[in-house]
Amino acid sequence: MESHQKGELLPLINKQNHNYDYDLVVIGGGSGGLAASKLAADLGAKVAVCDFVQPTPKGTTWGLGGTCVNVGCIPKKLMHQAAILGHSLKDSRDFGWTTPDGVTHDWSKMVEGIQSHIGSLNWGYRVALRNKKVDYVNAYATFVDAHTLHTVDRRGKEKAITADKFLIATGGRPRYPDIPGAKEYCITSDDIFSLPHSPGKTLLVGASYIALECAGFLAGLGYDTTVMVRSILLRGFDQGIAERIGTYMEQNGVKFIRGAVPTSIEQIEEGSPGKYRVKSTTNEGEEIEEEYNTVVLAIGRDPCTSSLGLEKINVELAKSGKVIVDKGERTSVPHVYAIGDVIEGGLELTPVAIQAGKLLAKRLYGNGTLLTDYVNVPTTVFTPLEYGCCGLSEEEAIAKYGEDDIEVYHGNFIPLEYTVPHRPENDCYAKLICVSSENEKVVGFHVLSPNAGEITQGFSIGLKLGATKADFDNLIGIHPTVAEVFTTLNVTKKSGGDVSAQGC
């Protein structure tokens, strides 16, 4: 008991009988890797984290913390907020505020503030590792053999590190198309959040959530913004909602080029920003040519596995390049594990990687048994009108249960805040997907509205606990809120009833 109170018991229990440098080496200093390393150290393991950011073709690099902190969730949400504030300024006049019409936005000022915040997070992660007695190795690691890594830092200094177990948490990086000028002249989400100058007229190539989120905040900040879409919007998400998002964005200034892909990018003028000629071809063979100041590629992400030396230790990879793991995140090599964006069949979401990292550390060093639940994971797409969802899309529900066994309750609504500035009444939308034969168990939750992430986070526990439509009906709403719409949905898709927004 005395050893336990002093924090000495678990280290004694977990003391490994090996001659390696570490009990666990984590490759990747992103959200998942950091979560696993810190908890493993708390549980008595001797841990190191190897993290090294390969610069983008434009030379952009960043500090400890991975994609989410540096070039993902954090700066994305802050730029999304900047755009929301611009819209709120317009609305404020209808609420009695006297604000000038000629309000302008300073891109460089915004980037400076965001990068300052990210810098403080980078430092905080380094301090946290030090406090947990986790060794931070700022070097690129590759496998030499089953228990040895070769590391090279930015100065070229080499070192060998050995460990009893390894965790691959290297995440992914944006994909570049194989066309002239792509790497020379285009940027990706790895570059845009630290871009030192305003982007000007911008083309975003892709229809992923990254493309639409970036297009949303750029248009919201006043930039001429176009999205080039090869096929459908938001593949993998509910397509009814995806098309609503596209319509909303078009109505709010984002232009779309549908059914087209770029074939070349050439520089016309240098500058900050410069000017580029983009040639593209439609599915019908029509050629399009247009000039832009900035071209952002968002056509997908590839896992960072190709240069880790995984082939030397026979870690099995999928065709996608992602690591194949079992339910306990163990690879084909028993002492090597993988979590986060790098695993095949997983979810590319930061909180999922964090949860997987923590639970894995508990299983390895804390007698834990709980596995990561990859079902009913809430998520949000931060488009101008946010999209929150949990569970199955309508397409997935029909494929799993059959169309006859699915009942969809849905409806448009208008937030009270939209009424005074006279925003459109039917932009916002709510949908519950239920299985009729299972007492109308809710298997899909979807909301298109302001603050959709906050709404989805709370309701998702209902899906996780098996809530039915009756449970939603019996829940008393908070009035006047957006979320209360889910306590009053009564029109089904099959009925064909009117789903137009109703008054309070």
Could you explain the architecture of this structure?
By secondary structure, the chain is an alpha/beta fold. It has 3 domains: 152 residues, FAD/NAD(P)-binding domain, CATH 3.50.50.60; 118 residues, FAD/NAD(P)-binding domain (3-Layer(bba) Sandwich), CATH 3.50.50.60; 109 residues, Enolase-like, domain 1 (2-Layer Sandwich), CATH 3.30.390.30. The protein contains 15 helices and 21 strands. The strands form 5 sheets. Strands 1, 2, 3, 4, 5, 6 and 16 form a 7-stranded mixed β-sheet that branches. Strands 17-18-21-20-19 form a 5-stranded antiparallel β-sheet. Helix 3 runs parallel beside helix 11, helix 5 packs across helix 6 and helix 5 packs parallel to helix 9. The N and C termini lie far apart (60 Å).
Write the CATH homologous superfamily of the largest domain. FAD/NAD(P)-binding domain
Oligomer: single chain
Overall 3D geometry?
Answer: globular
Q: Give the helix tally.
A: 15
Largest sheet: 7 strands, mixed
Task: Tell me the fraction of residues in β-strands, as a range.
Answer: 15-25%
CATH fold call of the largest domain: FAD/NAD(P)-binding domain
How many strand segments? 21
Broad CATH class of the largest domain: Alpha Beta
Q: Distance between termini?
A: 60 Å
Helix content: 25-40%
The CATH architecture of the largest domain: 3-Layer(bba) Sandwich
Overall tally of domains: 3
Global mean pLDDT: 96
Detail the poorly predicted runs.
none
Structural class: alpha/beta
Instruction: Compute the CA-based radius of gyration.
Output: 25 Å
